[in-house]
Design brief:
Blueprint (H helix, E strand, L loop, with lengths): L2 H20 L2 H11 L10 H10 L4 E6 L2 E2 L3 E2 L6 H10 L4 E5 L9 H9 L5 E4 L5 H9 L4 E5 L5 H13 L3 E6 L2 H7 L6 E5 L11 H6 L8 E5 L5 H9 L4 E4 L1 H4 L4 H10 L1
Parallel strand pairs: 1-4, 1-10, 4-5, 5-6, 6-7, 7-8, 8-9, 9-10
Antiparallel strand pairs: 2-3
Helix pairs in contact: 2-6, 4-5, 4-12, 6-7
Length: about 270
């Protein structure tokens, strides 16, 4: 585990402790369960929307909304999650990914709410989950899916978090970085398998990370390649290898209009 990931996870444990002291678990859980019966909060089908796009011959693009990153700093000062969500949707995104981590990515739960309220496509809560509290919290804020990072969780945690997410009608994207994490992630029920092309130790990025794992992944799993998709050649390379789902953030967030960046990369 990289030093930066260790620092982030330590921050998360502290964050959960403070949040649960302010809003106890039973209240967050009740809010999460109540959200299922509220029309505006009902789950939209994250995996379903990706598969729908792919079945129509398009790439299943999970377009990310993030203001900053620990390694690259602020991507855009004029940050309007609602406007970005609308642009992504109108330009072909299957789903959204919204950063809710405050300390390292300058995200927030409010950004997720604003984005989701201004579009009709499903939204992933992109954060570092270390406690069941955050799973309930994700549904309470309106998330249609959660991210589980294999490098940050043990097998029992991943299974438990997935089970709670499914009870709350949320989908799960499990993220791996190497073959050892892949073996662990394949034990989960979710068909959505994210392969992060960024090395967590060196932060180097190579699309070969995804390509080298494909032969070990069962056909019933849907591979989502993450990080390093920067140009049309990258997209062609992945689609030629039958990788049809993508999570892209930085390449879009640096554009004047992130949605037009998506259209240029995938639909032109």
């Amino acid at each position: 585990m990289s030093d930066i990931l260790k620092r982030i996870l330590a921050t998360k444990f502290d964050e959960v402790s403070k949040s649960s002291a302010q809003v106890p678990m039973h209240i967050v859980r009740a809010d999460a369960e109540a959200s299922l019966s509220e029309i505006s909060y009902q789950p939209r089908g994250f995996i379903k929307n990706i598969e729908k796009k792919i079945a129509a011959g398009h790439a299943g693009v999970i377009a990310e909304i993030k203001k900053a990153s620990p390694s690259k700093g602020v991507f855009r000062e004029d940050f309007d999650p609602a406007k970005i969500a609308e642009s992504y949707e109108s330009n072909g995104a299957a789903c959204l990914s919204v950063l809710t981590d405050m300390d390292y990515f300058q995200g927030s739960a409010q950004y997720l709410r604003e984005a989701r309220n201004n579009c009709k496509i499903p939204v992933l809560r992109k954060d570092f989950l270390v406690d069941t509290y955050q799973v309930y919290e994700a549904r309470a804020m309106g998330a249609d899916a959660i991210l589980l990072i294999a490098a940050a969780l043990d097998d029992v945690q991943m299974k438990d978090f997935e089970s709670i997410a499914h009870e709350l009608q949320m989908d799960v994207l499990v993220e791996v970085h190497d073959h050892q994490e892949l073996d662990r992630a394949l034990k989960l029920k979710t068909p959505l398998l994210g392969i992060n092309n960024r090395n967590l130790r060196t932060f180097d990025v190579s699309l070969d990370v995804t390509l080298s794992m494909l032969k070990y992944i069962p056909k019933e799993k849907r591979v989502v390649t993450e990080s390093g998709i920067l140009n049309k050649e990258d997209v062609k390379k992945m689609r030629a290898a039958d990788v049809q789902a993508f999570l892209v953030g930085e390449a879009f967030m640096r554009q004047d209009d992130p949605g037009l960046g998506l259209k240029e990369l995938f639909n032109s």
